[in-house]
Amino acid sequence: MLIAPLTASDRADWQPLWDAYLTFYETDLDPAITETTFSRLTTPGSGLHGAIARDASGTAVGLVHWLTHPATWSTSAYCYLEDLFVSADARGAGAGAALIEHVRAWAEHDGASKVYWLTAETNATARRLYDRVAARTGFVHYQIAL
Q: How far is CA 82 from CA 2, 109, 119, in A?
């Protein structure tokens, strides 16, 4: 599994993964949001970061996006892993773990004090991986749409 930073030339490989990720979470986004998201992910200094996973044949099989932010419980930043997706036919081959490890290593190098993420309670396949590589915090997620 090869994990590499996302670049503008990855767009054709990233788009189907992004679309499948949105479908998995039953979400439709305005195409302008997708355009802006990809631009931010591939523009240094934007605050968003991305990487793409490729199998041994070079086929794109997964993506990960993350950002850092200041924290009130630490003098260093926290790293929020916002999006993680591996194509259904590539699951179980290590891409998810490799993408998480990529973010963990990046965050450690960047000086963050932790990496954290959210997932759906019903996402049993991913949660088996998450339970192996991270500690479940027991927090419950709430939000207010604006």
A: 20, 19, 9
